[in-house]
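Section handout 9: paired folding examples.
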Amino acid sequence: MSTEHPLDDFRALLQRMPALDAQAGGAARQLFETQGAGESRLADVAALIAAVTGGRPSMSRPSLALFAGAHGIARHGISSRRMDATLATVAACGSGDAPVSHLCAANMIGLKVYDLALHLPTGDISTAPAMDERNAAATMAFGMEAIAGGADCVLAGSIASTGDETVATALFCAFHGGDPAEWLPEGDHALRRAELVSAALGTHRAVLGDPLAALAALGGREFAAMAGAILAARVEKVPVILDGVTALAAASALWAADPAAIAHCMLADAPAGAGQRAAERLGLVPLLGEGLAGGEGTAAALATATVRDALALHAGFAAQARAATHHHH
């Protein structure tokens, strides 16, 4: 890692992303078109996975990476959620008792929880950087491990923690523009949160034009680690299913650097409020309807079934096409 500009390694990766295989994607969609299903969401999924992997689309080893972090901005009392709830979820995932644990078992999905120094909150972004660039780079590198172990689809989600919505809002404002109040969900603390986001954007005005530097200054460890995971998957031609507002904010940082950086991403379900706006900006259409899942990775786990169905159709159509050409010869 270069000591001078620690994030340069990741900037270099963004320059070296493999091109998508438009031919493979087109061929996959063509198979659906011959069956009159070319405009379906399932065709979109099969075509995306074919284009990303450059081969016959498959998903036999999906893996869910759940990231958890703690935020300095939480000290302003802007949320009813407490850190013990986050710790309890991390523990439940570890013991196999979390809702997402059951769904991962049922859908044959690997599960790994990245507990990112929950005892040590990041800097309070309203007055200071969340992380320096060296820390952000190390955290992104740690997140890249999500693709280790041969996962052929990465599900990226987070465990809710106090302040994460406020941090996501700051990132959405930085990368998509607009007023903090427009991005924040209505609620008890909306006004105070908007003030804090405005303060954060003012404090870090100098780096807002540099997406990775902005991610370090405004984000949190789980945001940086997730960005690392998404980028690693892009470079290694592994499709990603994003789950939740934190994932959308992490994806937004990469998108701001280069929209092609999230060309391998799908969205699990329609997030509420700000997440929906962000998804539209990123051009992501959810795989599931709203309200089906309960966050914290559950939507991504459910969405793998939709992806598997798309790939099963593709395999069936491909077999039919092969049989037909064989028959003609």
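Moving on to protein 2 of 2.
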Amino acid sequence: MTLRQTLQAAPTKSKDLIDRLAETSNQAVKTREALFGELSDELTLYLNLEERHLFPVLGKTPETKALTTEAIKSNKELRDRLGELAATPKDSDAFAAKVAELKTTFQQHQSNARKRLTTIVDALGDEQAEQIAAKIDEGIADAQKADRELRRNEAEARRREREATERAAEAARAALRAERAAAREVGQIAERAAGTIVHGVASAEIGVRRVASAIGEQAQNAADAARETITTYTDTARNTGRDLKALGTATNVARKAASEITSAWFGWVTKTARVNVGATRQLLQCRSVRDLAELHRDVVSSHFRDMLEGSKQVLDIAAETARQAIRPLDNRLAEGA
């Protein structure tokens, strides 16, 4: 394009943006921000290209030197209006007033530029005018290319963000499915573990009852024997006080053993309950089926180990009880011999 065409075409987009900005309302804040940003870039580019490629040449030519001073002053007024508009809230009536001021300043700038244009073109030679026009056109083309590149980058960034969001959503859905599957597995494992524990508790309870019953029967038999002995030998044995004491000791030992067995059983039940509480807390920390399986293994092993220890404790009490109950009887028999 010729220099005249270039200088006339360059501000066309800026004029269109100012008109569109003037039509917006206080509620259209985002639209105002977008239009103002585009206007600021476009108008600043136009002023920069003039000041970089046209004004230096005009300042060296006597016929246009005075025009250059006026043009620089006009450009400064436009920049000041842009700065004022940038600092004004986009949702206020003051913004619309500043847009109107900018529009007036821009129109005056264009009117003065048209008046200067003929003098400028006449003062410059064709070759020099073409060089200036080419540089301005090149600057506009470079800016447009950069703008397109920026828009492509922004579109690519939005696409990547959208894809990342979709991947994150899919990962969240997959995690939810895995969590639900793990919850079902936990429920099944917990149900099986509970069945095992209940069975172990029932078995241990039966064992304790059997041992306690046996000891009780022994104590009852000993008491019956004592009563029979007392009845039979009351008239003939005057020193049976020590015999009765020995028999009473055996009976007391049996009763004490029953109490110790009951305490041992309650201790085992309490320990089992604590293991169950700990297992429940660990279930919440499981992250895979493997973790659940290992937890199940540890819980079952712990319960069976505790059950064996409890059974051994009960049997030890029974054995010690038998020894303690028999000892006073043996001592008394030894005295009688």
